[in-house]
Amino acid sequence: MPDAVYVRDAFARIADRYVLTNHVLSCGADIWWRKVVAARIRRWNPARVLDVASGTGDLAVEIQRQCPDCEVIAADFCAEMLAHAARRGVANTLVADALHLPLLDNSFDVATVAFGLRNMVDYPAALREMRRVLKPGGRLVILDFSLPDGLLRRPYRFYLHHVLPRMAGWLTGQRDAYEYLGGSIETFPSGNSMMDLLETCGFVEIRATPLTGGVAAIYQGSRPSLLVDESKMEMPC
């Protein structure tokens, strides 16, 4: 699991050039991925959305744009990243650890986490915390990298471990922060492993949507509605 102190320090160091670097390294695909997530959320017409590990607010900004009547709160444990989110127009920001959110139970229609769960020290604990703040029937949406299958897998791994750190180091002057990225993607649960983790943590109606040949994926799950007695559900995670 990632070291929380290292992760927070790394993101603080790259905050000023984080958005530009992401767009360059993904050839702009990350912009489209977030638009897909926000469009899915728009169809649900939520009143309140919590964007966990929001960073510089890329997803929060897109959700605000597509859901103008929705209250969006961007939470992150790195204040330097959230300062950029606020400057980019995120109306509500909250410096908070995703494992200990200072928010009420049952208070959000949707919780999102884009490229952030992978950086947390305890995936199950973070998922349980997001589940706690969701209303019964509320939805969780995870957007993150994965390893594609087939012919794309080998060149993508080469890019992750050899090309990306050099390019990111040139753009940010912080190559070590991006050398960590490749390893974190390798060990992060994806595909069926992520779906199993969500089920273990008490989510239902779980689905996965690969993006760009499997380079990234959207995972979706729901907190059970009031028709389900959650006290009887086994959640060993």
Word description of this protein:
The model has no long low-confidence stretch (mean pLDDT 86). The two termini are 15 Å apart. The protein has a domain at 27-148 and 188-224: Vaccinia Virus protein VP39 (Rossmann fold), CATH 3.40.50.150. It is 45% helix and 21% strand. It has 237 residues and is α/β, with parallel strands linked by helices. The protein is built from 9 helices and 7 strands; from the N terminus they run αααβαβαββαβαααββ. The chain has a 7-stranded mixed β-sheet, with helices on both faces. β2, α5 (79-87) and β3 form a beta-alpha-beta unit. α3 (29-44) crosses α4 and α7 (153-172) runs antiparallel to α8 (175-187).
How much is the radius of gyration in Å? 17 Å
Overall CATH class of the domain at 27-148 and 188-224: Alpha Beta
What's the CATH H-level superfamily name of the domain at 27-148 and 188-224? Answer: Vaccinia Virus protein VP39
Mean pLDDT: 86
What gap, in angstroms, lies between the N and C termini? 15 Å
Biggest beta-sheet profile: 7 strands, mixed
In total, the number of strands is 7
What is the CATH topology classification name of the domain at 27-148 and 188-224?
Rossmann fold
Give me the side-by-side strand order of the main sheet: 3-2-1-4-5-7-6
Principal-axis shape equals globular
Number of helices: 9
- Helix and strand run: HHHEHEHEEHEHHHEE
